[in-house]
Amino acid sequence: MIKPTISKETILKTGIIFALLTVAIGAFGAHGLSEILNNNSKLETFKTGVLYQLFHSVAIIICGILYDSYESKKIRISFLLFTVGILLFSGSLYILSITNIGIFGAITPIGGILFIVGWFYLFQSIKTKK
Questions:
Q1: Which residues neighbour 28 within 8 Å (Cβ) at sequence distance 6 or greater?
Q2: Where do the domains of the chain lie?
Q3: Among 26, 33, 110, 117, which is disulfide-ready with 50 (CB 3.0 to 4.6 Å)?
């Protein structure tokens, strides 16, 4: 059976791409979506998505930096949790703020839980130095 592997480079590139997208999405929200994000609540929801995407893009980059020094299996799990967390948490907030479809608000906490578990796994990974 072939095990899928996630390399240090994949983790670093993913974090950098998410960080790049954070800047692009934030700028697009501020300038291109100003008509749609016309009330403070929608704008704050969108900004929260951008902020958490930025934090967890950096967390993914940290995972890549720590990959060779600490337990890489738990770091890979953290990476996956942070990645899916960004997609669910930030993604649902972006869609919610633009479309106002309330069901997306129910997805957001799932992404938040993935972030929390991702940080837990990252913490656990540094217990064992290679």
A1: none
A2: 9-125
A3: 26
